[in-house]
Design a protein that fits this description.
The structure is a single chain. The chain is α/β, with parallel strands linked by helices and 227 residues long. The chain has two domains: 2-108, Resolvase, N-terminal catalytic domain (Rossmann fold), CATH 3.40.50.1390; 148-227, no CATH class. The protein has nine helices and four strands, in the order βααβαβααβαααα. The chain has a four-stranded parallel sheet with strand order 2-1-3-4, sandwiched between helices. α7 (148-181) crosses α8 and α8 (187-196) crosses α9. It is globular and about 65 Å long. Keywords: DNA integration, DNA recombination, DNA-binding. It comes from Paracoccus onchidii. This is Recombinase family protein. The active site is at residue 10. InterPro entries: DNA_bind_recomb_sf (IPR038109), DNA_bind_recombinase_dom (IPR011109), Recombinase_CS (IPR006118), Resolv_N (IPR006119), Resolvase-like_N_sf (IPR036162), SSR_resolvase (IPR050639).
Length: 227
């Protein structure tokens, strides 16, 4: 049996120092022992709050290409992210976890439902608290004129982050796009093939000719828009 492993650490410092990675590698090695071999490893340095996982996308693509099982080192923390679970379930790739081998598709569905409910409950409590504060006359968020400059800075920072995410996604997906394109496929045909392979755009949507063109444009160092 072939395995593609996916490891994750929360901070850049952990990624550079290897803190946490060695324990995860030991866990996946113990799981693989006697079952097969690891053919590829992908390491994500991301906050658990972020939904976009470029290394996960690469891992799923490689697992599908190699006919391998995607082996997650620590599913317990990642399973709190609904988008993460959705990507796994929609990928068509067999998934297992070193820390929770019994986590089949049914268990993942339950985890996704629980995570979604928790997120909805937190959102509703936050909205209720903000409404109560507003009713008491408390000024909320950017309604304070003195914070206008902070708002502009936040908008600029958000745009930069979105662009960086789009570029990272383009870098991960472009090898697959180029492979399909090499066969003489049009932009529309490339989009159809990416959708058939269940590879998502940067925002988790379907591919179209325009989003494929964005990927090719980004590869040449030009502006890219997140799909």
């Amino acid at each position: 049996m072939k395995f593609v492993t996916y490891l994750r650490v929360s901070t850049e410092r952990q990624g550079q120092s290897g803190l946490g990675l060695e324990a995860q590698r030991a866990a996946v090695a113990a799981h693989v022992l006697g079952r097969g071999e690891v053919v590829a490893e992908f390491v994500e340095v991301e906050s658990g709050k972020r939904a976009d996982r470029p290394e996960l996308v690469r891992a799923l693509v490689e697992a599908k290409r190699a006919g391998a099982v995607l082996l997650i080192a620590k599913l317990d923390r990642l399973a709190r992210n609904v988008a993460f679970i959705a990507n796994l379930l929609e990928s068509g790739v067999e998934v297992t976890a070193a820390d929770m081998p019994e986590a089949n598709r049914f268990v993942l569905h339950i985890m996704a439902a629980v995570a979604e409910q928790e997120g909805r409950a937190i959102s509703e409590r936050t909205k209720a608290a903000l409404a109560a504060a507003k009713a008491r006359g408390v000024k909320l968020g950017w309604s304070i004129p003195e914070r206008a400059s902070e708002q502009r800075q936040a908008v600029r920072k958000g745009a930069a982050v979105n662009k960086a995410r789009a570029l990272a996604h383009a870098e991960n997906v472009s090898p697959v796009v180029e492979q399909i394109r090499a066969g003489g496929a049009s932009l529309r045909q490339i989009a159809a093939e990416l959708n058939a392979r269940e590879i998502k755009t940067a925002r988790g949507g379907k591919w179209h000719a325009t989003t494929v063109r964005n990927i090719l444009t980004a590869k040449n160092g030009a502006e890219v828009c997140a799909a």
